[in-house]
Design a protein that fits this description.
Layout (H helix, E strand, L loop, with lengths): L1 H41 L7 E7 L6 E18 L5 E16 L7 E9 L5 E3 L3 E4 L4 H7 L7 H19 L5 H18 L11 E4 L4 E19 L13 E17 L7 E9 L5 E3 L3 E4 L7 E9 L4 E19 L4 E18 L7 E9 L5 E3 L3 E4 L9 E10 L7 E21 L9 E2 L7 E8 L7 E10 L4 E3 L3 E4 L7 H13 L8
Antiparallel strand pairs: 1-2, 2-3, 2-4, 4-5, 4-6, 7-8, 8-9, 8-10, 10-11, 10-12, 13-14, 14-15, 14-16, 16-17, 16-18, 19-20, 20-21, 20-22, 20-23, 23-24, 23-25
């Protein structure tokens, strides 16, 4: 029993020792964490950098100060009539700051400086700045008083009258009455104030392909309107010959600039500028015109399509319809010749003929649009060689008709073209499946030509035929076309055939009855 008590006491001592050890480990760990957090918070020791300080919204009783900081910080402004600054503060942390200083005195110089602190308490203070508040309307009125006799005396009377009028207006709260007073003031102002004028009377115009920028000046602040019409829509026989207006009707400025977009290239437009002041004074210019620029021709996809012994074909495209001229030079003799097409088009192909075999040539493409604006390509160089290219077959077409009469015969006319002088032969076969045993053909052409026609009378009505063409140029280069299909027309039925067929269709059931 004694041993058991000793053993129990020994176990209790071990448990207490282990618990104490864990307690100290926990305390040390917590201290480590607190230290880490504290170190992290203490890591930023640099104050925020204040920049881009601006003073906005100047009035007789308020100012707005804005600035930026390179990190989030609070917003504080010291300000006063003297350099012993007062304070206004916004505790919200941010990078873009705005502080409004209100209840200021008019016509006074205020001093201020900016202070911003980040979340770690690092504080930055700006240099000293100052501003002057505006004077009030009453101050401006007072300036006209006490200027002596004559003109000064008149100004004093006017100032007193204005002052009394403003006091009376402040007592009016009815909206309808205020509207009536506003209208009356505008009518009086029109008779007193000098007219609104447009500087120089004519606007300056900058034009592009599809836009125009019109600028002008007025001697008083006014809005900006431009009335426009294209040459074909401009009509002097009506009260308003302009088709539409563009501008800024509510923005009052001295310098006006209006950009008109979505105009047509190479088009003449009539325009008139209009401006109206806050008091309703209007000014307008005389009618003027401008013309938008045309789209300059551009040359793309130049290709020397075919070089032969004594000829070469050059193809290209333009972005707008143009006429074209090829200026080509024999580089052996420096002799220059021209070849062209006066038709306006966008896809061009011109063949140079009567060239010399095995000779280098330089060619320049020159194009001109309908407005006589020109563009030319860089020089191209090629050499004439023996023709090793087969002719190109194109524009294949067919037309089939029935022979008149009772015979089941058709006539099919087949036409096509080649890009050079060639002799061709026509092959055909009935049905859709091709076999060498069943193919038929017509006799080869006798003369070299570029336009080819064959007449086929062997086709049966209401039948499908496949056909193809083989052509050979003067140099012996051959080419076989793709396979084409033609369906011949059906034999037309006479009136009697139609009646009998209709009768059989109606009473054909009689054939099934056994009498």
């Amino acid at each position: 029993m004694i041993i058991s008590k000793k053993l129990l006491l020994f176990s209790l001592i071990i448990c207490i020792s282990i618990s104490i050890s864990y307690f100290f480990i926990f305390i040390n760990q917590e201290n480590f964490n607190f230290s880490a957090v504290y170190a992290e918070e203490e890591e930023d020791k640099e104050p925020p950098i204040i920049s881009d300080i601006k003073i906005l919204d100047t009035t007789s009783s308020s100012k707005t100060i804005i600035w930026e900081t390179d990190e989030e910080a609070d917003s504080l402004v010291n300000y006063a009539l003297k350099k012993d600054y007062g304070i206004i503060r916004d505790a919200l942390l941010k990078k873009e700051h705005t502080i409004v200083l209100d209840n200021l005195l008019p016509k006074q110089m205020y001093y201020f400086r900016i202070i911003s602190s980040d979340k770690q308490g690092n504080q930055s203070i700006s240099n000293d700045y100052n501003f002057i508040t505006q004077e009030t309307i009453e101050d401006k009125i007072q300036e006209g008083e006490g200027e002596g006799e004559g003109e000064g005396e008149g100004k004093g009377e006017q100032s007193e009258l204005i002052k009394n009028t403003l006091e009376m207006l402040e007592k009016i709260s009815n909206e309808e009455s205020l509207s009536l007073i506003e209208s009356k003031i505008q009518n009086i102002a029109k008779g007193v104030v000098t007219p609104l004028t447009i500087s120089g009377d004519f606007a300056k115009v900058e034009v592009g392909i599809d836009y125009a920028i019109i600028t002008w000046k007025t001697d008083k602040e006014a809005n900006s309107i431009v009335a426009l019409a294209s040459e074909k829509d401009y009509n002097l026989n009506i009260d308003d010959p302009y088709m539409w207006k563009e501008g800024e009707p509510n923005e009052m400025v001295l310098k006006h600039s209006i950009k008109i977009t979505n105009l047509k290239p190479a088009t003449t437009y009539h325009y008139k500028i209009l401006s109206k002041s806050k008091l309703g004074l209007e000014a307008e210019s005389d009618d003027s015109v401008f013309r938008t620029k045309s789209i300059l021709p551009e040359i793309y996809n130049i290709n020397i399509a075919k070089i032969e012994e004594k000829s070469a074909t050059i193809t290209w495209v333009t972005n707008v319809p143009c006429s074209a001229i090829l200026e080509y030079t024999d580089l052996n003799t420096n002799e220059t010749k021209l070849e062209g097409n006066s038709i306006l088009m966008t896809t061009h192909s011109i063949k140079l003929s009567n060239l010399k075999l095995d000779t280098y040539y330089s060619v320049v493409i020159k194009v001109e649009n309908e407005h006589k604006e020109e563009t030319e390509s860089d020089p191209l160089t090629f050499v004439t060689t023996k023709d090793e290219f087969p002719p190109v077959i194109s524009k294949i077409n067919t037309e089939s008709t029935l022979y008149p009469g009772t015979e089941n015969k058709t006539q099919t006319i087949v036409g096509w073209e080649t890009d050079e002088l060639s002799i061709c032969q026509f092959f055909y076969q009935q049905g859709l499946t091709l076999t060498d045993e069943d193919k038929s053909f017509l006799a080869p052409e006798e003369d070299f030509t570029r336009k080819h026609v064959q007449v086929v009378t062997a086709f049966l009505p209401s039948s499908v035929y496949k056909f193809w063409i083989v052509c050979e140029d003067k140099s012996g280069n051959k080419i076989k076309s793709d396979y084409f299909t033609v369906l011949t027309p059906a034999q037309e039925k006479s009136i009697i055939d139609l009646i009998i067929g209709n009768f059989e269709g109606t009473f054909g059931w009689l054939k099934k009855i056994n009498f």
